[in-house]
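To the wet lab folks,

You asked to see what we're planning to order before we commit. Fair enough. Below is the target structure as tokens, and below that is the sequence we designed to fit it. If anything looks off to you, flag it before the synthesis order goes out.
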């Protein structure tokens, strides 16, 4: 569980091109925090995560994803439910905050 959570943090925090040996690694989600905080941007974030995160790490199997923008604090609350059949646990819930500083889990 810890390894998958850490992998997600690394993927979300890394800007593509930042890792020289793997230039396609990362999603650079923080750039969305400089766009209007609304449901459209939240949808873009969710689509990016759903499409690209499993390509970055094959252990990431997203069963449910919620992205909610909070314009008052200029951040997004992100909640995942992942399936982890390979590690003997059915579901893993991860909640975190995406803001201009990056992604942090609660």
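Sequence we intend to order:
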């Amino acid at each position: 569980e810890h390894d998958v959570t850490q992998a997600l943090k690394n993927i979300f925090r890394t800007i593509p091109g930042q890792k020289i040996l793997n230039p396609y690694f990362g999603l650079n989600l923080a750039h969305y925090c400089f766009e209007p905080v609304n449901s459209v941007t939240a949808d873009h974030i969710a689509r990016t995560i759903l499409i690209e995160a499993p390509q970055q790490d094959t252990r990431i199997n997203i069963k449910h994803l919620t992205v909610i923008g909070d314009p008052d604090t200029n951040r997004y609350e992100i909640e995942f439910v992942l399936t982890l059949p390979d590690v003997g646990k059915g579901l893993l819930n991860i909640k975190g905050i995406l803001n201009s500083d990056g992604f942090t889990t609660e």
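Structural context that might help your review: The chain has two helices and four strands. The chain has a mean pLDDT of 89.

Thanks,
Computational group
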